[in-house]
Design brief:
This protein is mainly beta and 96 residues long. The chain has one domain. Helix content is 4%, strand content 48%. The protein has 1 helix and 6 strands. Strands 1, 2, 3, 4, 5 and 6 form a 6-stranded mixed beta sheet that branches. It is elongated and about 50 Å long. It starts with 6 loop residues before the first helix and ends in a 6-residue tail after the last strand. The relative contact order is 0.25.
């Protein structure tokens, strides 16, 4: 038997950058609120230094059913802004 150390493994999310903040059940579905955050990458436009900016409005991502109940992931994704060219990019993950 293997112990599951992280709630994200329990629901099948493989990305280590996703942190669950709240899980609650409504009459119709289970809702998971989480944030996607990681260190700032280099700018894809000018390759300059980017800084953490803020979070986007949460994305609504349907997941596989848990115990026969529909599950919804509300994921806030980090935004990054380049110090040089001022372009803004959004954190990416393979599940979205």
């Amino acid at each position: 038997m293997r112990l599951i150390k992280n709630n994200t493994e329990l629901i099948g999310i493989k990305d280590q950058n996703i942190k669950i903040s709240l899980v609650f059940e409504t009459d119709t579905h289970i809702e998971i609120q989480a944030k996607l955050d990681y260190p700032a990458p280099s700018c894809p436009h000018c390759h300059g230094k980017m800084i953490k900016y803020d979070f986007q409005k949460p994305s609504k991502i349907p997941l596989l059913e848990q115990a026969g109940t529909p599950t919804l992931l509300r994921l806030k994704k980090r935004r990054f802004q380049c110090k040089s060219c001022r372009s803004v990019t959004v954190a990416e993950t393979s599940i979205v």
